[in-house]
Amino acid sequence: MEKIVLPDIPNFDKIDTYLANGGFSAYRKALTQYPDDIIDQVKKSGLRGRGGAAFSAGLKWSFMPKTTDKPKYLCVNGDESEPGSFKDRQIFEYNPFQLIEGILITCYAIGAKTCYIYIRGEYHKWVKFMEKAVETAYEKGFVGEKMKEVFGGGFFCDIHVHKGAGAYICGEESSLMNSIEGKRPYPRVKPPFPAQNGLWGNPTTINNVETITNVPAIINKGWEWYASIGEPKHPGTILFGVSGHVNKPGVYELPSGTLLTDIIYSYAGGVPGNKKIKCVIPGGSSMPPLRGDQLEGVKMDAESLRMAGSAIGTGGIMVMDEDTDLVKVLARITKFYYHESCGQCTPCREGTGWMLKLLNRILRGEGSTKDVELLVSVANNIEGNTVCALGEAAAWPVKFMVTRFRDEFEARVKESAAREVVNKVHSMRRTVNPISPINI
Amino acid sequence: MSSFILDGKQIEFKQGQTIIQAAADHGIDIPHFCWHPSLSISGNCRVCLVEVERMPKLVIACSTLAAEGMVVHTNSEKTLAARNAVMEFILINHPLDCPICDEAGECKLQDYAYQHSVGESRFTEEKMHKDKRVELGPHVMFDGERCISCSRCIRFCDEIAGEPQLTFVQRGDRVTIVTYPGKELDNPYSLNVTDICPVGALTNRDFRFKARVWDMSSTKSVCSGCARGCNTDIWVRSNEILRLTPRHNEEVNSYWMCDEGRLNTFKHVNSESRVSGPQIKRDGKLNKSNWDEAYAAAFGELKSYTKDEIAFIGSAASTCEDNYILAKFAKTVIGAKHIDFPRHIKAGDQDNILIREDKTPNALGAELAGIRPAADGLTFHAIMKAVDEGRIKALYVVEEDLVGLNPAYKETLRKLELLIVHASNYNETTELANIIFPAATYAEKNGTWVNFQGRIQRIRPAVTTIEGDRSLDNLAMSRLDKFGTEFDRWGNVKKMDARPVWKIISGLANTQSGKFRYSTSEDVFNELVKSVPDFSGLDYDVIGEKGAALKKFVNTKTV
Ligand SMILES: Cc1cc2nc3c(=O)[nH]c(=O)nc-3n(C[C@H](O)[C@H](O)[C@H](O)COP(=O)(O)O)c2cc1C
Ligand code: SF4
Ligand code: SF4
Ligand code: SF4
């Protein structure tokens, strides 16, 4: 089976090997076509974003204004901070030049002269890999002004590797842009979207590392070829990062639509001790978990997973066997989102802490049946009411874990709470009228 | 004009307006904390989430552009659910220390909690704890627990004051406000953050713990600190001014005022150094006298000099009415030609926000009302020179501390035979005076000032004097005025025996001629309007709460 993003070629991360295997031929081919044609091919290829939302890459590029005096930018999102997600770093390590070539083609297609590769701060090692690769590319004249001589044509672009400082929120695209600008990485209110108002107010496209790394193959082998791989509505190969209770955890590049059970049992070697699976989170920790008895026939692509009641996310598959304490798992996941909530908007800032306190109390054996309901209600109150999707990322695991494994949670609580209710009243709305009119 | 439907009502809007702006223009308040009409949109509080038909999710009214035919619901089931959820979230970690919070009574959070929340919280955990007393700067105190992270204060510093001094630090519910390393919140406009902070997180260190807001009255006034004339409210309890706050006037000061004006233009009103009752010097000692005696004495003394030996000094701190009557008296009763007023220009102390170099509120008005020398009269500096040279023997000074202005004048004024002064407070000039008339301050009288833009604005009595009748003179009444009794500690308030300049000079003139018949400053103003064309077309109602441009300045845009 063909691998597009992580081919099984030794030393592919070396520029000579990359060149010997047709490196930069896709960019040369792209140069012979109009930028709009490139966008069109990527659109038709069906390539969808690998950063979580599975949005059509070509469509996103087409939002970039064609006639503008402003500089345009491409940001490659390598923040990869979602628990259970560890695939982009494989690209940094094993296929950096294909990412660079993808960047060149994308920049050419959308008319960007500058690209930032944003890599999470904790990926120190991979930042080094990527910096080295970009340096080599500059030396060879594959990036920067010298591109004009090396490849011909009038186009060139620059690439900067930008290291984050250690916040999950910086993976959210508008937060990422604020971070690059040197600002506090609070996500921006949308609209306006990045294509209108991105980096420093200029048109910007943001794509995931894996998304961009797919581009050279599409140009080289044609969109028809790409569209025919895997599930038609979400074609191509996907990097699945499998972790948890499996014998062979790791990153597997497989066609979209591969059966979840095949991935777990054949590629990842099954569950240690042949235990039963209690729960699988199929797309990184923020996606709705599936019950062990819901896995049969579930295919790994955006549409199929939606039908199954979850989402593809970043393709990070987390497997939990029958002995797993899901209350503890949920508390740990919630702690992560509590820690990473940027604190800008009310529901997520306050709600993540509340959910964590409730879960910790249930863990301590001090919860009541009411608290289980309350958890779901708090999650519902966050969902849809926030500035960015971290709100949902925090709410979904709680909401779906509790509703899909209610028995586990109810077994941990008592009929009524052991504790006194404090801070109960926060207003006397029905007994008193406002004292003064509301001022601006 | 395009329109959309808001809760069944047709709302017109201008292209590019957001839902909340368009609603506000029609007097409809969509609940909000972080949105402020003069600041950029932040969209963080989420209280303004509304349902728009055919949009998949609720949207925030503060950033969503109004569009033709849009149907918006601010009270639908979905909207209410979201608003209640957000209110509950805001309150879970809020300390609810309203009983000891300065903001209580004028707190957006408190008001919305009454209006828009379900009343009961389901939160039974320990609340977050944060620093409760952080001195952000010389004037502003921060309480981290009360902060709802709306970012208004940060945006104010960045966008209005033009000095980024505040920022958020930390994440999630640990987020709090700090100043940048090595910086203080000390820009000249810092106290405005205490007004726009929707809760009691930022408080005015000068006013903290002085009063409950509902125990004070507020009176619409104008700041006396410079020629901008920022519109203000004067807050009074027990006849004592406790604070000033800016009052919105887009033509003059928007929602803001400077710290200097806010803090340093009212304390003299409450001060121990007030002159109360007329004072006449005999044998080198000041003696309190009654008004009629003082009027007669002053008039008699003035009459013993020739008109060339007398000079009059008006004031750009006095009202147009005061200056008009002074000029009328000097010119028609005494026949004097030496009349002028000193300028208070603090060179360089000006910015392109509000602050003006001219530190008086009414220089333009004083001049227009007639405080300028006759063709052969002396200007202010020439008058002082003439005093020094003994050519002018009698000087009548209205609301100016000349020695305070220039210490050298101490020697100059000693050379006078007669010095009559109107002063609200004892100062180095009053020390040299033969007769002192106690002047009512701007906070104790009605009148008008003309700011540097040529905009005439009204001041009103906020504090009562012995003769002042509060209700007749538009004095706002606090709860204590209405319900306080003789036995309350605020029942027996201190009142000054002081009068506005126009009234004193009228009294003085009337000892002889009886022609200065005015019962209110409005009477004076109406005569001023008739006799000075620059003021034509105006009356107190036309000037109203937000002022009016004098005709010849109508087109000068100077905001
Ligand atoms: C809280 C949060 C964290 C995110 N982190 C990442 C990330 O680490 N990497 C990534 O590619 N996308 C991340 N995303 C998604 C991006 O906002 C954006 O949708 C994506 O980078 C677009 O690329 P794609 O269209 O190629 O998928 C995150 C989104 C949210 C809300
Ligand atoms: S949803 Fe959470 S992470 Fe996103 S802006 Fe709001 S507080 Fe920040
Ligand atoms: S900020 Fe408002 S709600 Fe909070 S304690 Fe003060 S008055 Fe009460
Ligand atoms: S201190 Fe006040 S104005 Fe500033 S963010 Fe907090 S609540 Fe908002």
Could you walk me through the main structural features you see in this protein, from its secondary elements to its overall organization?
The complex is a heterodimer of chains A (440) and B (559). Chain A has 440 residues and is α/β, with parallel strands linked by helices. In chain A, 41% of the residues lie in helices and 11% in strands. Chain A has 3 domains: 15-227, NADH-ubiquinone oxidoreductase 51kDa subunit (Rossmann fold); 237-321, Ubiquitin-like (UB roll); 326-410, Up-down Bundle (de novo design (two linked rop proteins)). In chain A, strand 7 and strand 8 form a beta hairpin. The radius of gyration of chain A is 23 Å and the shape is globular. Chain A starts with 14 loop residues before the first helix and ends in a 30-residue tail after the last helix. With 559 residues, chain B is an alpha+beta fold. Chain B folds into 3 domains: 2-92, Ubiquitin-like (UB roll) (Roll), CATH 3.10.20.740; 134-270, Alpha-Beta Plaits; 279-443 and 498-535, Rossmann fold. In chain B, the strands form 6 sheets. Chain B has a 7-stranded mixed β-sheet, sandwiched between helices. In chain B, strands 2-1-5-3-4 form a 5-stranded mixed β-sheet, sandwiched between helices. The longest helix of chain B has 16 residues, at 77-92. The mean pLDDT of chain B is 94. At the A-B interface, helix 14, helix 15 and helix 16 of A face helix 2 and helix 3 of B. Flavin mononucleotide (FMN) binds at residues 49-53, 55, 77, 79-82, 169, 171-173, 206-208, 211, 388-390, 393 of chain A. Residues 49-53, 55, 77, 79-82, 169, 171-173, 206-208, 211, 388-390, 393 of chain A line the site of flavin mononucleotide.
